[in-house]
Every structure is written in structure tokens, then in C-alpha cells.
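Entry type: protein chain
Record version: 2
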Amino acid sequence: MTLELLQRIPAVSAVLRSARSRCGESVNRTPGPYRVRSSSVAASTKAETNTEPNAEPAGLGPRLGALVLDWVLCLLIASLYASPFEKSWPAVLVLILANTFFLGLFGQTPGMRLLRVRCDSYPDGGVIGPARGLFRALLLSLFIPAIILNSEGRGLHDRLAGSIVVTVPRP
């Protein structure tokens, strides 16, 4: 029971997988625990996805709300050293840096944490890492990829970065 709980923690899961591979055990990689909303997509990806009832792609409302909260925080931070009315690029730079840091290391920005969503690696789950976090943040700063959604609710920036935004279950 305890081992199953520990395997749900992304960092512990990665350590266990690497330990198994070093010991010669085969590592059984199951795809991520994401539920697909569309029945046509569910039929085509049934063999590819491991459905877990608590991991559902986040809707547009929480995603947009988290982005607005993060943007307000970035405007406040950027206004400490540059006026957002005179120069707009410092706030965008702070947004890129904040998304890279928080998503790359923790899987959630402060806005995502408040609205109970997180960004996971797709399809295997876990934190996306700083490099993919930076790539995702750069695409997000263009804004256009963020509004091009597919049937799973993943934006173009999520698909290109190999990530998915899912709801965090209530404790």
C-alpha cells in the first residue's frame, strides 16, 4: 500500500524506475493517467491511456483564470523596476521566467495552485522540467498557440511542449 502511494509521487516514481532499470528489471511504462473527454478520441486512444478517475484535463475557465492571476503577479513584480505603461516587455519576461521556474520544477504556477490545476508531462505524468517549461512559456507568451485547443483540451503550446494541464483532485 505504501509503495503504491509513493509511486504516485513523480520524483519517487522516477527514482524507482531508474533503480529498476539499473537492476535489470524491465521497466513497464504505462501511459499517463489522463481521462479523455471526447468518446471518439477515447476510442482511438483507449490502448494508449491509463484512465484514472482523478486526472481529467482542465477546462478553459481554470486555465484562463490561472493565466490572468499569473499575469497580474508578473505585472506587479515587473512594475518594481519598470512602468508597465511605458514598457510592456518586462512583464512578459517575468511571465516567461516564472512559468519556466514554477512549471519546470513544481508543475504549478501560483495561479494554477490557487485554481487547483497543474501542468504534467504528457503522456507519462510528472513535472515537465525546466527546458520544456521554457519552451512552453515561450509559446504561451505568443498567446495564439494557447487558444488553439484540440478535443482533449490541450493547447497548441501544450502539444508542442509535450504537456497537459489537468485538474488537481480535492484532498
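Comment: The chain has two domains: 1-30, 60-167.
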